[in-house]
């Protein structure tokens, strides 16, 4: 089996799984309880929060544990917009965002009457801060962009967008799901007001993530208790939080080594592809090496994925959240248009530091046999 769909989810590290098992079997108290079992559980949560806060260089009180990146995105976008409508009625995002952002702003537009602008990339697929600057209005209260695209790996100009917002009332939300644990991210230094992350993208468990916030006024999405500094009700998912913190700590300790490894794997993959007829959907100068979007002229993507799957190879056509649904990539459509043939022949190959050179070689051999068979 060859797994090359790490942008959808990554394997859990053995050390992470062991920490989670230990917590499940020894620390079962409710962190809100005042007895010794509850206090022990509370300490575990506090320690995990401190670990993550230290890595991000943010105050511990500014982290909210969530069920993942989608909840974190919804909490930031919907929570802030509804609580600050007196400041304006306009939200600004991009046309290449994850659906958890796109659907959140569409909900605000359709159900609450907000005006939303979806900014498209330049004709060549690049995305510059001036695109955001040109779309800003006096009544814009929120700008939301991803740090790196989940389908192409394109890195957006986060620092430049943040800088242009220093003289504007709009706050800045960044979906950092595809970069967390892969590059250093410090929200305060970058001028980010909200930042979302999900553990299962950096070898942690599914169903847990976090939202960084900069002491802003925003409505809660989940009500019923005083957990998370009163920001999110519900008993904490302790073992998953511990697993997330451990996974992020391991990733943070190996950022440069892992990044260089993935870069080398990408170079190998592109080199071994040279005997085949293919193109890359590569947009902008800065990209994450973890994600490659490849097109094979005249080859139907769904059929190719099925044939690869039968040979034990897992890749994707794009966002995992639309896996199984026959719909074209909205990311590629934002660049090429809705009717371009590239939307039907492009696939995503995504790597992690756990991917091996032998897996890349094996994938290319199987792919070559399929395309030339």
TrEMBL record:
Domain Aminotransferase class V: 2-361
Coiled coil: none
Cofactor(s) required, per the database record: pyridoxal 5'-phosphate
UniProt keyword terms in alphabetical order: Aminotransferase, Iron, Iron-sulfur, Metal-binding, Pyridoxal phosphate, Transferase
Top-rank taxon: Bacteria
Family note: Belongs to the class-V pyridoxal-phosphate-dependent aminotransferase family. NifS/IscS subfamily.
Protein name: cysteine desulfurase
Gene name in the database record: nifS
């Amino acid at each position: 089996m060859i797994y090359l769909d790490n942008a959808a989810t990554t394997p859990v590290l053995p050390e992470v799984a062991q920490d989670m098992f230990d917590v499940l079997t020894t620390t079962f108290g409710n962190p809100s309880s005042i007895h010794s079992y509850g206090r022990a559980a509370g300490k575990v949560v506090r320690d995990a929060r401190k670990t993550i806060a230290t890595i991000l260089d943010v105050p511990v009180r500014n982290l909210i544990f969530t069920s993942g990146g989608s909840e974190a995105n919804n909490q930031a976008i919907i929570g802030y917009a509804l609580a600050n409508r007196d400041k304006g009625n306009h939200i600004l995002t991009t046309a290449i965002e994850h659906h958890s952002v796109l659907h959140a702003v569409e909900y605000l537009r359709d159900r609450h009457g907000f005006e939303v602008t979806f900014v498209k990339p330049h004709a060549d697929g690049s995305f510059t801060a001036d695109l955001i600057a040109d779309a800003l209005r006096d009544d814009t209260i929120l700008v939301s962009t991803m740090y790196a695209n989940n389908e192409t790996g394109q890195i957006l100009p986060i620092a430049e967008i943040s800088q242009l917002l220093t003289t504007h009332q709009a706050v800045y939300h960044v979906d950092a799901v595809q970069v967390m644990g892969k590059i250093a991210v410090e929200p305060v230094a970058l001028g980010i007001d909200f930042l979302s992350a999900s553990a299962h993208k950096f070898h942690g468990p599914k169903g847990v993530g976090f939202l960084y916030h900069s002491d802003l006024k925003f409505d809660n999405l989940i009500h019923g208790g005083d957990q998370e500094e009163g920001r999110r009700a519900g008993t904490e998912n302790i073992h998953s939080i511990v697993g997330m913190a451990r996974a992020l700590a391991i990733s943070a300790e190996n950022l440069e080594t892992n990044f260089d490894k993935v870069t080398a794997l990408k170079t190998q993959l592109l080199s071994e592809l040279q005997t085949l007829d293919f193109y890359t959907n590569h947009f902008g100068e800065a990209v994450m090496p973890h994600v490659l979007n490849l097109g094979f002229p005249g080859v139907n993507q769904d059929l190719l994925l099925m044939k690869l799957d039968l040979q034990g190879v897992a890749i994707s056509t794009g966002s995992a959240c639309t896996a199984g649904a026959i719909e074209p990539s909205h990311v590629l459509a934002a660049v090429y248009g809705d009717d371009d043939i590239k939307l039907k022949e492009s696939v995503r190959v995504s790597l992690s530091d756990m991917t091996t050179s032998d897996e890349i070689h094996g994938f290319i051999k199987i792919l070559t046999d399929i395309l030339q068979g």
